[in-house]
Amino acid sequence: EPEVTQTPSHQVTQMGQEVILRCVPISNHLYFYWYRQILGQKVEFLVSFYNNEISEKSEIFDDQFSVERPDGSNFTLKIRSTKLEDSAMYFCASGGTAGNTIYFGEGSWLTVV
Amino acid sequence: AQKVTQAQTEISVVEKEDVTLDCVYETRDTTYYLFWYKQPPSGELVFLIRRNSFDEQNEISGRYSWNFQKSTSSFNFTITASQVVDSAVYFCALSEVGWAGNTGKLIFGQGTTLQVKP
Predict the structure, then answer these.
(1) Is B62 exposed, middle or buried (0-12, 13-18, 19+ CB in 10 A)?
(2) Most exposed residue of A76, B51, B80, B118, measured as fewest CB within 10 angstroms of its CB?
(3) How far apart are CA A64 and CA B71, in angstroms?
(4) Which residues of chain A neighbour B107 with C-beta distances below 8 Å?
């Protein structure tokens, strides 16, 4: 069964460092997303990406965040200068069409120290 | 504004009991989609069901069933004869077709932690 894969599963980084989280969405999907979940809290939308551009972003997704689809398979989230409050689980997700089922990866747990 | 409310923060039941998880949503759109996801202790988000706003038929899948009522803006989830493996956090989510088109963005509720004791 096709699945969304994410790397790394866990990363510890120092405050101020840049982090890149990587994702391989399901191959025939067209919509890509990043969500985050701070420990014990709900899942929050960060950004959606379609047709090689951001289609929507939340207020969390400020200038420190960026996304890229550098080739036909990878989808990355970059945090330029990490802060302590960026510590969270980051989920990549993909969907075939808007409104269709969105499938999530297993998450990348980011710890900023 | 769109919103999903799961008023039950935590529920604890004994194995084989039935349990219903409540979900109430708010949206101004007439076309939208509702979802349930399960998050087991391992952390991943597992898709359970998707329902569009025009389909109010209840659905049953094994021990799981869902009751969608537009009149009360609710999409409740029932587990029959619960098992220890059902212990997880369950999230209800809403996806709208907004003015900008549908990006497919999900708005999640706060989640309900279900603990099933042996």
Answers:
(1) exposed
(2) B118
(3) 42
(4) 45
CA B42 to chain centre: 19
- Residue B22's contacts (CB-CB under 8 Å, 6 or more residues apart) are B6, B7, B8, B74, B76, B112
Q: Is the pLDDT of residue B101 over 60?
A: no
Average pLDDT on B63-88 reads 95
* Alpha-carbon distance B9 to nearest alpha carbon in chain A (angstroms): 11
SS3 A22: strand
Tell me the average pLDDT of chain A.
93
pLDDT in tens, A62-107: 999 999 998 878 999 999 999 999 999 999 999 887 667 889 999 9
Q: Which of A10, A38, A41, A43 to mutate to test the interface with B (most CBs of B within 10 A)?
A: A43
Q: pLDDT band for A30, please (50, 70, 90 cuts).
A: confident
Taking any CB pair shorter than 8 Å as contact, residues of chain A touching chain B are 31, 33, 35, 41-45, 48, 50, 55-56, 89, 91, 95, 97-107, 109
Which residue type, as a one-letter code, is found at position A22?
R
- Please judge whether B105 and A45 are an interchain contact, meaning their C-beta atoms are less than 8 angstroms apart: yes
